[in-house]
Amino acid sequence: MKQKYHNHSDNWNPWEGCHKFSEACKNCFIFPMLWQYRRDPATVRRCTSTWNRPLKWQKAAAAAGGRKTVGVCYCSDFLIEEADPWRAEAWEIMRSTPNLTWMFCSKRTHRLARCLPPDWGKGYPNVAIGASVESKCHLDRVDFVRDVPVAFRFIDICPCLDDPTPELADHLDGIGLVSISGERSTPDFRRFDLQWARNVRDLCAGRGIAFRFGHGAGREYHPSDVLDGIKHKGITDFLKETGQCVGYQPTSPIALMMVS
User: Fold this and answer.
1) Domain assignment of residue 175, yes or no
2) Cα 84 to chain center, whole Å?
3) Would strands 68-72 and 9-12 be described as parallel, antiparallel, or unpaired?
4) Is the pLDDT of residue 136 over 90?
5) Is 197 inside a domain boundary?
6) Sequence-separated (6 or more) residues with CB below 8 Å from residue 259
7) What CATH code is carried by the domain that includes residue 133?
8) What's the confidence (pLDDT) of residue 167?
9) What pLDDT score does 258 carry?
């Protein structure tokens, strides 16, 4: 029996501010956006005004008998060093909101194991963790996520700066979703060949892994999200077609979130 799922999402920024970490960060939108509000994007600060907002989302989702997806640290990196004093409280928010499905990806996955909470165990059942990878030379970021217990693991290749295949194939064990996108919202967007997306799509199809095409590259905010005439939405489409995917646990909240 399919569970009721409210197909909308929100973002939660327990802190904001970041430091450019690798070549993917060259045109990061966070920096001009925060400057627009006269906030220094290089200063990592706790967002106290929105800290308890997920508790309201949890109450509403539980009352409706449904679920809500929440993206974490849209304006920072969840594993950034400056947030170490606050992260335990953020984990507790996630643990105490079982009707919220939490998703975050990081370029700093080498810090993941040391940043997990003491009661992590086999992973919080409502938390998905991904590696943010822009090129094949950074695929080791995926392995740091694969090395720890996580209810659901994913890879976000954005902005994609080169063809991650065939090397990507060696980093897919335990991965449930691969998403790929070009660089957007900047006049200096870098080249993104749609063949790279096709290669990842075909690799995922052969391995039984859900595939998502986020968007192409362009100066506009919403480049096309269509690849060869098809919108690839990832988990939802994959489960409708096959009823399964790698890393899919039918009894966990993270899996119930994925069934619409």
Assistant:
1) yes
2) 20
3) parallel
4) yes
5) yes
6) 2, 3, 5, 236, 239
7) 3.20.20
8) 98
9) 46
- On whether residue 2 sits in a domain, the answer given is no
Q: In Å, how far are 3, 76, 184, 191, 225 from 222, measured between CA atoms?
A: 31, 21, 7, 16, 8
Residues 75, 212, 120, 146, CA torsion sign: negative
Give 139's contacts (C-beta < 8 A, 6+ positions apart).
133, 164, 167, 168, 170, 171
Residue 175 token pair: 């991965």
Taking the C-alpha atoms of residue 12 and residue 233, their distance in angstroms, rounded to an integer, is: 22
Strand spans (E) along the chain? 9-12, 15-16, 45-46, 68-72, 100-106, 127-132, 152-157, 177-181, 210-215
Is position 4 within any domain? no
- Write out pLDDT tens, residues 218-236: 777 788 899 999 988 876 5
Structural domain tally of the chain? Answer: 1
Identify each DSSP E strand in 23-126 by its residue range: 45-46, 68-72, 100-106
**Pairing label, strands 15-16, 127-132:** unpaired
Q: What's the alpha-carbon Rg for the chain, to the nearest Å?
A: 18
The 10s digit of each residue's pLDDT in 157-214 is 999 999 999 999 999 999 999 999 998 777 888 889 999 999 999 999 999 899 999 9
Domain containing 176: what range? 9-257
Predicted local confidence at residue 67, as pLDDT: 86
Question: How high is the pLDDT of residue 149?
Answer: 96
